[in-house]
Amino acid sequence: NILNELALCDGLFVYQDEETGLLGYKDINGKIKVEAKYGSCRNFNDGVAIVRFKRGTNVDFSEMLNCCGVINTAGDSVFSGYTMIQDFRNDGMTWALTTSISEEGVMRDWVQIDKKGSIKTGPIPNVHWIYNSKEYPICVIDMGFIGTFYTFLDEKGDFLSDFNNDKELAL
């Protein structure tokens, strides 16, 4: 049986509904545990999974951009409203991005959140990408007017750099 060969996370695996093409979760016996209503799903980890909510056609562009969230194993929304949420680290933290569009242009704000959606660090505005790292500080790529550069963040979200090349990170 193919179901027995799948790797389960919190007892569930992602499946795709053949009619709608949407994704949900089943258990090892093939029983639907979370209805297929998501545009994308990640595996569960300690009781939560990151999903992309499928939005209707009558929503504004900002709502379409910020349709990622986290659900529990019962399929209940824990929180939502992000453009992208990275996988949670072992410490239960991750980085999430919100995007807004205004007359000033596209604004990107990163926040560090826990599995309940509580913001622990941020917002950090106008950073192109923040990478989660299990061993080192978070690496940031900034696409500013001066070009692309890499730096690190401390646990408070402050930028660290080695611009003086002394092999030590400093504010």
What percent strand? over 45%
- Largest sheet, strands/sense/barrel: 6 strands, antiparallel
Report the helical percentage.
Answer: under 10%
Instruction: State the distance separating the first and last CA atoms.
Output: 56 Å
Structural class: mainly beta
The total beta strand count reads 14
Description:
The protein has 171 residues and is mainly beta. Helices cover 3% and strands 50% of the residues. The protein has one helix at residues 61-65, and strands at 12-16, 23-27, 32-41, 48-53, 68-72, 77-82, 84-85, 93-102, 105-114, 119-125, 129-131, 138-144, 147-153, 159-160. A 6-stranded antiparallel beta sheet has the order 1-2-3-4-5-6, with no helix packed on it. The chain has a 4-stranded antiparallel beta sheet with strand order 7-8-9-10. A hairpin with a 4-residue loop joins strand 2 (23-27) and strand 3 (32-41).
Keywords:
6-stranded antiparallel beta sheet; about 170 residues; disordered N terminus; mainly beta; about 5% helix; 4-stranded antiparallel beta sheet; single chain
Briefly, what is this?
The chain is mostly beta strands and 171 residues long. Helix content is 3%, strand content 50%.
Element layout with pairings:
Elements: E1 12-16, E2 23-27, E3 32-41, E4 48-53, H1 61-65, E5 68-72, E6 77-82, E7 84-85, E8 93-102, E9 105-114, E10 119-125, E11 129-131, E12 138-144, E13 147-153, E14 159-160
Antiparallel strand pairs: 1-2, 2-3, 3-4, 4-5, 5-6, 7-8, 8-9, 9-10, 11-12, 12-13, 13-14
